[in-house]
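Continuing the series of single-chain predictions for the mutant panel. This is the parent chain; the variants come on the following pages.
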Amino acid sequence: MEQTNLKQIEIGTIDKPKLTPEKVKIVKTEIEYVEKAKSNKVVCHVKHPKSEDEISISSVKIEQGKDKVKVVGMWVNLDKDNKLDKNSATAILLRFLGCKTIEELEGKECSTTEDDGGYLCFRGY
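Parent structure:
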């Protein structure tokens, strides 16, 4: 479609089907640089049982103290030894799934939940 035609398209009325929290299989992991944050983030491409297409998830809901959970991006934070920060959300998810590296996430199954905006994130607790 030409650019001029795209400018003339009206707002649609069809709601996109919303995926519900389910157990997903991590098919592929990528590290993407986020310019705005000036940092790397883990992006997991997952197979959702109710979607034909892969979806991407890059955040995890973790426990923060008693009876409190928080959604955090899966940032690649390194310690002084150039290893993943042991208290980062990424490391918490890795331990939760029995992995030592980001690459080991591939092939793992993980439950999902919703963040405050209704988007799917991993459940890391």
